[in-house]
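Consider a typical record:
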Amino acid sequence: MTDAAQLIDGAHPTQSVLRLLARRPGRMTIALLAFAMKEVPLWFLPVITAAIIDIVADRGEVTAVLWWLALAVALLLQNYPNHILYTRSFMRVVRDTGADLRNALAARLQSLSIGYHTRVSSSIVQTKVVRDVENVELMLQQVTHPLLSATMVMIGAIAMTAIAVPQFLPVYALAVPIAIGIRYGMRNRSRVRNELFRREVETLSARVGEMASLIPVTRAHGLESTAVDRVAHGADGVREAGFRLDVLNGHVASLSWVSMQLLGVGCLVLAAVFSLTGILPITPGEVVLLSTYFTLLTSGLTSLLMLIPVGARGLESVRSIGEVMQEPDLELNEGKRAVEAVAGGIRLERASHRYAGSDRDALHRIDLDIAPGETVAFVGSSGSGKSTLLNLVLGFVRPTEGRMLLDGADVQHLDMRTARRFVSVVPQESVLFEGTIRENIAYGMPHLGDERIAGALRDANAWDFVAAQPHGWDTVVGERGARLSGGQRQRLAIARALVRDPRILLLDEATSALDPESEELVKEALDRLMHGRTTLVVAHRLSTVRKADRIVVLEHGRIVEQGGHAELTERDGRYAHLHLTQAGLTGR
């Protein structure tokens, strides 16, 4: 089955929806056939009504009326099983399509670069995965039934009228162009206002996400009113954009209803005049038949026109999803060689990286050779390129000049997703998800044995506090580990790294946010974790890097010094200055 991501084109949302539905031709065929059967009474009952009226007008037989009654009952009763079959078939397609879109979005988001995720708020991403897909599902639910019904009625009405009173067909032809004119007359304005409304909702989502993450800072500084004002400004944008959209939808609804009702009244009067004047040989029953068919036709078209807002909102959501599916900022791994094993050798050869839109390199012509098992610390002021260098090693960004080698192989030819199976990262702020301690340690390794988890917790100095929890390692840690202290979260992050037995270890400010007691426990755990592994350490506190085999000093994306702690302090260079500054010895 074709990947849903390949079918989404934000520039052509209607075609995208049709392509998604066509992925399940069997169920769609069953749904359409069941719908056609269940709708037969809608367009055939006027024929039965007209026949009974003419029998009465001609003083016919009661048995003739009963035969028509039996046919009506049979047609009505078959509606139930066919309606259930249609609902089961079509709604399965709708729900499967929604799941496919969410899965495709999740997969696409995982393949987009770290730069994309830095630029785009996580709240906006969440809105696309949850709200936009829901809008597509609602559009399919609410628009498809009236669309198919109007189509079936139109076909039935035209066919039966062509049989009974073919001369009256041109009158029906008036309804369709008027409906199409209203639809296309409002299309561009509806699209623009739906897009503005969607952008305002995304902005509000981003601000709500910011407010939630900044609550500790906001409360600590007494900035509650500032936070509320920022969200209120976003809410005002949603309100105004939504109101303008509502007014436009009101115009569509009123124009649709008035024009279709006028046509319905006109059809009834015209059929009556033709019958009374003898212009056409129309019986009383046929007057009712023509009027009923035209009413059904105009009602169906009115229903479709009333659903323009729902359809426009759904198509705008398809465009929103298309923004992610067609985002070109991908981490390029497809078709590259998978990494089966890693020894841990890393070599940078005149490697540079410049971020899109920047006028200078974040890293400039870096030459560095790191042997397997070596511990290298990177120090420097903020913006010196330390984090970019770690992202380069992880393959989150690729060299824009020069090259990087992993165990002698150019990373440009490697699928770095497979290389990361041999890498563990312990960041400054450990990230835990809503789940148990065990689930967090074994994340991505569901079949991990208890002994291995227990060993990792002991080596991470985490066993004692985990055992003291109400349910041991089955205790739920809360969202982002909110029920644990910073030191406890960090030791769990180390345990999570340990169970993976990585060959390359990246420590990004892993102890900078801890109190002295927690820092000592974490340092002990890190010493065990680093043993025998290639380790890259980023730290502002120089006291944490003294034991490194080598210290590399970065400034403005360039290496300005490298060597051991004692060697660098004796040189009286940049590292010595940083060391004296942190020790409080400058100016003495």
